[in-house]
Write a structure and sequence with these properties.
The protein is α/β, with parallel strands linked by helices. Helices cover about 25% and strands about 25% of the residues. Bound molecules: flavin-adenine dinucleotide.
Length: about 500
C-alpha cells in the first residue's frame, strides 16, 4: 500500500485529494493535513465582503467529505518536511502540529511515499506597518472571516453616508510586491456597485490604490484585447475607461509604507510620497510561502534545498535568476516535481514562480513596485489534478520514475470576472480572459498571447458564469455525484 500525503485543503490540495482517492481506490492511503476545518471557495469571498453572500455560503466542513470519500484528515499544520526520513527510519515524513481544538498543540510525524505541498500563501500583513485586520488599521477579504468582518464595516460606512457623512474608501494592494490585483479590482468594482445600489454613491470618494504601474497590469504585464473591428485595446485603456465611467480615482505605481488609523501612506515609482485619508480601507497583503522547515536524515536544516527564499517550494522551473529581458515561457514549471526529491510535488500557490511577468521596478528609496505573477484558482486546480494523476500512474505502474504529466501556466488560460449584483437579470460583470497566463512569445510573437482567448467584455453573461462557477465548484469540492465531470 502506497501513502499519498497532501498538505493543504484549498483549491490545489483538495482537488489533488479528490483525484488521488478516485484514481487509487481503497488499496492505497490518501491523507490530507490542513489547519482549517472548513473548505472555502475564496473567489466568492468578494461577495461576502460586500454582504451579498453570508460566509456560510462559501464554506463547508471538510471532515464529513473526507470521511465519505475515504481520505484521512488531520486538522493540523505541517511544520517540517523530512524527505529522507529520520535517524530511526528512512521513510520520508512530515511533522505536523494539531490545530483541531480537541488535540491543539499535539504533534505527530506522518510517513509518506508521495508528498504534495499545496499549502497556498502565507498572508504577510506584517510586511507593511499597520496593514491588516488583526491588530492593524485596514481590512481584508482574503479569508471568509475577514470578508465577513469587512462587510460589517462597509455596512457602517453606508449607514454614515445615509446619515449625511461623506466617506472615503480606499481599496487595493497593501505592499509594492503584492499579487492578486484581480481580487482588489473585483472588490472595488463590487463596492462601487453596492454604493450605487444603496443610493449613496455621491456621498463617497472611492480610490483604487495599486502597485501596478498602469491599470490592467494584473502582474501579467497587461494584455491586448482584439476588437471586432480589427483594432486593439490595451487592458490599461479598457480598465481606465471603466474606472473613469464609475468615478473611481486611481493611485497607481504605489508601495504602501504604513497604514495609520484612517490614513494610508505610500511611495510611488517616481519617488513622490503621499498620504490618503480613509474611512474604509481594504488592502490586500503580499504573499510568501507558509513557515515550514526541511531536514535531512541527520536532522540538518535543508530548507534552502526544498524552498526558494520566498518560502515557496522549488519545482521543475528555471530559477537561475537570469535578467528579466531573457526569461521565456519555457522557464515555467510543467510537472511541479521537486528537483531534489522526485516524490515531492508542489501545486497551486505553494510552488515558487521562476520570475516576475510584469517588469519589477523600485522607487528611488528601494521600495518594490513589482506586481507578482497572479496565482489564480484554475491553474491551482489543474496543477492539483495533474500532480495527483502523475502520482497515481507511478503507484499503479510500480514505476516510480514514470514520466510526469504536464500542466504549464505558459499553456494555460485564466479568467478574472468582476461580477456585481445578486439577481440573474440585474447583475453585470467585467470579464477578462487571457491565454496563456505566462506570455509565450515563441508561439504568439506579437503579444505573447492568443488573441482569440484574450478578451475583455462587459455584460450580464459574465455575471451568470461567475454565479454558476460558485455553485459548480462547491458541488465539485463536496465530491457529489458526477463531481469529476466538472472541470477545474
Ligand atoms: C479575495 C480573493 C479573491 C479571489 N478571486 C479569484 C477568482 O475570482 N478567480 C480565481 O481564479 N482565483 C481567485 N483568487 C485566487 C484563488 O483563491 C487562489 O488561486 C486559490 O485559492 C489557490 O489555491 P491553493 O490551493 O494554492 O491555495 P489555498 O486555496 O489558499 O489553499 C491553501 C491551503 O493550505 C492550508 N495550509 C496553510 N498552511 C498550512 C500548513 N502549514 N500545513 C498544511 N496546510 C496548510 C490552508 O489552510 C488551505 O487549506 C482569489 C483570491 C483572493 C484572496
Amino acid at each position: 500500500m502506497a501513502r499519498v500525503l497532501i498538505l493543504g485543503a484549498g483549491v490545489a490540495g483538495h482537488t489533488a485529494a479528490q483525484y488521488s482517492k478516485k484514481l487509487l481506490g481503497k488499496g492505497h492511503s490518501v491523507t490530507v493535513v490542513s489547519p482549517n476545518s472548513q473548505w472555502n471557495w475564496i473567489p466568492s469571498n468578494i461577495w461576502v465582503g460586500v454582504g451579498k453572500m453570508g460566509k456560510k455560503q462559501v464554506i463547508f466542513p471538510l471532515a464529513p467529505v473526507y470521511r465519505r470519500i475515504g481520505v484521512d484528515f488531520h486538522q493540523a499544520k505541517a511544520v517540517a518536511i523530512r524527505p529522507e526520513g529520520d535517524e530511526a527510519d528512512s521513510t520520508p515524513a512530515v511533522d505536523i502540529e494539531y490545530t483541531d481544538p480537541g488535540r491543539a498543540g499535539q504533534t505527530e510525524r506522518l510517513r509518506y511515499d508521495f508528498l504534495i505541498n499545496a499549502t497556498g500563501p502565507q498572508l504577510k500583513f506584517d510586511m507593511t506597518e499597520g496593514l491588516g485586520p488583526d491588530g492593524g488599521n485596514s481590512l481584508s477579504v482574503c479569508t471568509y472571516q475577514h470578508a465577513h468582518d469587512t462587510s460589517e464595516k462597509l455596512k457602517d460606512c453606508i449607514q454614515k453616508m445615509r446619515e449625511g457623512t461623506r466617506q472615503t474608501l480606499v481599496i487595493g494592494t497593501g505592499h509594492g510586491a503584492c499579487t492578486c490585483e484581480g481580487a482588489a479590482f473585483e472588490y472595488v468594482f463590487n463596492v462601487e456597485h453596492e454604493l450605487r445600489d444603496a443610493g449613496v454613491r455621491e456621498m463617497a470618494d472611492v480610490y483604487y490604490l495599486t502597485n501596478e504601474t498602469e491599470l490592467g497590469d494584473f502582474g501579467v504585464g497587461g494584455m491586448n484585447f482584439a476588437q471586432k473591428d480589427g483594432s486593439t485595446v490595451t487592458s490599461a485603456q479598457w480598465m481606465g475607461q471603466m474606472f473613469a465611467d464609475r468615478g473611481i480615482k486611481v493611485i497607481d505605481s504605489a508601495h504602501v509604507l504604513r497604514v495609520d488609523p484612517g490614513v494610508v501612506h505610500f511611495e510611488q515609482l517616481d519617488g513622490s510620497v503621499g498620504s490618503q485619508a480613509f474611512d474604509f480601507a481594504m488592502l490586500l497583503p503580499p504573499f510568501r510561502g507558509v513557515d515550514m522547515k526541511a531536514y535531512d536524515r541527520s536532522g540538518a536544516d535543508i530548507s534552502d534545498v526544498l524552498f526558494a527564499p520566498s518560502g515557496f517550494m522549488k519545482v521543475d522551473a528555471d530559477y537561475s535568476q537570469k535578467p528579466f529581458e531573457e526569461w521565456t515561457a519555457e522557464d515555467w514549471p510543467k510537472t511541479y516535481e521537486s528537483p531534489a526529491y522526485p516524490n515531492v510535488f508542489a501545486a497551486g500557490i505553494a510552488f515558487a514562480p521562476p520570475h516576475a511577468i510584469s517588469r519589477p521596478q523600485q522607487t528611488p528609496t528601494g521600495n518594490p513596485i513589482a506586481p507578482a505573477p497572479p496565482r489564480t484558482g484554475m491553474p491551482a486546480g489543474v496543477q492539483g489534478r495533474t500532480v495527483a494523476e502523475t502520482i497515481a500512474e507511478r503507484i499503479k505502474s510500480g514505476d516510480w520514475s514514470h514520466k510526469a504529466k504536464e500542466a504549464s501556466m505558459a499553456d494555460m488560460g485564466a479568467a478574472c470576472i468582476a461580477s456585481v449584483g445578486a439577481g440573474m437579470l440585474s447583475g453585470s460583470a467585467a470579464t477578462i480572459t487571457m491565454g496563456p497566463i505566462v506570455p509565450n512569445y515563441a508561439q504568439y510573437p506579437e503579444t505573447g498571447r492568443d488573441q482569440e482567448l484574450t478578451q475583455g467584455e462587459l455584460g450580464l453573461a459574465g455575471h451568470w458564469i461567475k454565479r454558476l462557477l460558485h455553485t459548480m465548484f462547491i458541488y465539485k469540492a463536496k465530491g457529489l455525484p458526477g463531481w469529476s465531470l466538472i472541470p477545474e
